[in-house]
Design a protein that fits this description.
homodimer, 2 domains, 6-stranded mixed sheet, 6-stranded parallel sheet, 6 helices, 26% strand
Chain lengths: 234, 234
């Protein structure tokens, strides 16, 4: 069954975005009486499509409501379009809760007045990926920020480092899984500057190594998130 | 130092592909006396560039020669161009030894007389990725084949399954790591047909689940390879 995220609920019907209604009528070519899955406020509903003068999405039954056991916040550099899209899509598939795009010293992409257009695009990507991989929440994407905004008081805080030799993700895993909330910083191409890593360390981020492989920057979040999913597997 | 894979060695000099010589002279704009890394037959050499009427790549010293502790053979469906490129590049970064492209029942991509052009393209991608991530071997890519060709006598053989409930990659890891050679089959979009999975099971491939996440087909190899890298981390 096709899944959509509703923007509102009104009595026994749901409000979907115009683009989703278009998808239902003109891409999926659904008819009155067809069923869809609708997610609203982290609850999954079975709904009936009713197509008349307007398209109505009518409540049928509650299917599921559950939440992730861990909340993973991913801090990523602002990357070139294709790489950023890949990271957003794959991080969504791999269950990330929130994505914070940061401009680091060595970021090649400049952020300017086009930022709101970028954000719209990024939000569309994570929404579509959430529908496709049947999540019941869409990751939140923060506004583009700088390293000094990464001041969090709760959870375990990690920074993927190419300088760290002694602590790797494997021997730190026990500490990582103890916390229900994790923040993971991935640096840009060329890595974090020494200054940046020190600032993060002072803010409580622990530098960890990901082993000996040399990975492209867009591979790193997928690598870390795959491992976390694996370790949380029952 | 820039890394290149040599096609031959002749006394104290190495033979590089024309495209690599072009890269050295016209992209990197190296001069006589500059050093590069050259890999030949899984040994890493430091070499000096000598540019005259011809470009000579002269032996300087041996830098490294080591091999992966495990050999990972990845069996993947033939995918559309962009997804296939992504899988090849990322699988190379994550240390795969050999990639076997297979046409499954539900593959949407047809393979025809363009196969040799596809193979050339794929080989170029894994060579460039190997140079970029500083491997000392380039993954071997087999000719496109069918499921009946996957008859291997050695190693642990796994098929990523959406049907399997009891055995997941985590509780099978102990058995997996016992073998120095592993074969991992990833199915196409829409999954393997029941018939295909049964044929593979009869050939000794054990069906394993990757947990509850719904992943796009191109995410699956990256997920599995990330986990294997993690488990092999010291």
């Amino acid at each position: 069954m096709q899944r959509y995220f509703a923007v509102d609920k009104c009595n026994n019907s749901f409000v979907l975005a115009d683009s989703d209604l278009h998808h239902i009528c003109h891409v999926m070519r659904m008819k009155s009486g067809d069923f869809i899955e609708v997610v609203f406020e982290r609850v999954l509903y079975k709904c009936k499509v009713d197509i008349g003068a307007n398209v109505n999405i009518l409540f049928d039954s509650v299917m599921d409501s559950h939440d992730e056991s861990h909340s993973i916040v991913l801090v990523v550099p602002v990357l070139k379009e294709q790489k950023m899209d890949l990271v957003l899509q794959k991080a969504t598939e791999l269950g990330v809760s929130r994505i914070i795009p940061v401009v680091f010293e060595r970021c090649v992409v400049k952020v300017n007045d086009k930022e709101s257009r970028k954000l719209d695009r990024w939000n569309r990507i994570v929404k579509e990926a959430s529908e496709q991989c049947k999540r019941i929440s869409v990751p939140i994407i923060d506004n583009v920020c700088s390293i000094s905004d990464l001041n969090f008081s709760d959870g375990v805080k990690l920074v993927c480092s190419t300088r760290e030799n002694s602590k790797n993700i494997k021997n730190m895993m026990h500490n990582i899984l103890e916390c229900a909330k994790m923040y993971i910083v991935v640096g840009p191409e060329g890595g974090l500057s020494l200054d940046e890593e020190q600032v993060l360390n002072e803010m409580g981020f622990v530098s960890i190594s990901l082993g000996n492989r040399i990975m492209r920057v867009e591979t790193v979040p997928l690598f870390v998130l795959s491992i976390l999913n694996y370790e949380m597997m029952e």
